[in-house]
Amino acid sequence: MKNKYRILKILVVLVLLAFLLHFSLKRFGAKQQNLTINFIQEKPVYFINEEKIKNIVKNSNPSGKVGSLDIPALEKKINALRAVDSANVYLKLNGVLNVDVKQKVPVMRINNGNRQYYVDAKGEEFPLSSTFSYPCMLVSGKISPEDYKNLALLIQKIAEDNFNKRYFVGINKVGDNYELLTDEGNFKVELGELENIDFKLKGFKTFAEKYLIYQDPMKYRQISLKYNNQIVTTLRRGFKSDADSLLNQKIPNNVVARPVLTAGK
């Protein structure tokens, strides 16, 4: 008999707990949701604002009740936005819906002649915004997605050095060769393929600091770093070659500066 009473007590308690749980969930589900939006990122970007996220939440749950909210579907919609790197949607016990959004940060802005778009550090493309423009390196030409990784490395190396950051303002691709565009715009720095980037930038920096800054800014039409262990300079028409002074410059790692006289403009 005692066992029967004990089992009966357990069943009664379980029924009561089930009833209370059902009542609590029903009451919780009927609550109107409150929304908290957090933009989580180190660099300030404003491709997406709170109003856009609020509209997505509202359209996903027109009733505004917690119980009718499909959190996985809502999270998927926010993650589908091209400028979103990641989104996390979760509901607190007090009924507050939290939306954490991390936006993509552009590494470069590409102009391929037909359209312009951003590329982030992961190599993912996303469109420009009509309300916000992020300051980053402009890359022009027919750029292959396979080059995004090395381009990001090049841009990082430029940004890490104060000399390079002041000197180079853009990147251009002509055929298979990449060029660095300078701040003054009097000459181009031919980089060639995106390999040995660190070596090429260090060689140009030393060449510029020890020789180039003392020359007429209109003297050269192009400075090429594409050849192994040498810097090839292309003179403009009317300027005299000074091979001896070039070859006497102390360029690191046995890099040789070799002048070339061409019929440049």
Q: Layout of helices and strands, plus pairs?
A:
Blueprint: H1 2-29, E1 34-39, H2 50-60, H3 71-79, E2 84-91, E3 96-103, E4 106-111, E5 116-120, E6 125-127, E7 137-140, H4 148-160, H5 162-167, E8 168-174, E9 177-182, E10 188-192, H6 197-210, E11 220-224, E12 230-236, H7 243-247, E13 256-264
Parallel strand pairs: 1-3, 4-7, 7-8, 10-11, 12-13
Antiparallel strand pairs: 2-3, 4-5, 5-6, 8-9, 9-10, 11-12
Helix pairs in contact: 2-3
Can you put this structure into words, describing what you see?
The chain has 265 residues and is of the alpha/beta class. The protein folds into 2 domains: 31-103, membrane protein fhac (Ubiquitin-like (UB roll), Roll); 106-264, Rossmann fold, CATH 3.40.50.11690. It has 7 helices and 13 strands. It has helices spanning 2-29, 50-60, 71-79, 148-160, 162-167, 197-210, 243-247, and strands at 34-39, 84-91, 96-103, 106-111, 116-120, 125-127, 137-140, 168-174, 177-182, 188-192, 220-224, 230-236, 256-264. The strands form 2 sheets. A 10-stranded mixed sheet has the order 6-5-4-7-8-9-10-11-12-13. Strands 1-3-2 form a 3-stranded mixed sheet. It starts with a helix and ends with a strand. Residues 18-30 and 244-265 have low confidence and may be disordered.
Short synopsis of the structure:
Helix content is 32%, strand content 30%.
What best-fitting shape do the alpha-carbon axes yield?
A: elongated
CATH architecture call of the largest domain: 3-Layer(aba) Sandwich
What is the radius of gyration computed over CA atoms, rounded to a whole number of angstroms? 31 Å
- The tally of domains stands at 2
- Protein structure class: alpha/beta
CATH homologous superfamily classification of the largest domain: Cell division protein FtsQ/DivIB
Percent in helix? 25-40%
What's the pLDDT, averaged over the residues?
82
Alpha plus pi helix count: 7
Q: What low-confidence regions span 5 or more consecutive residues with pLDDT below 50?
A: 18-30, 244-265
Run of helices and strands: HEHHEEEEEEHHEEEHEEHE
How much beta, percentage-wise? Answer: 25-35%
Question: Which CATH top level class of the largest domain fits?
Answer: Alpha Beta
CATH level 3 topology of the largest domain: Rossmann fold
Strand order of the largest sheet: 6-5-4-7-8-9-10-11-12-13
Distance between the termini: 110 Å
Largest sheet: 10 strands, mixed
Number of strands: 13
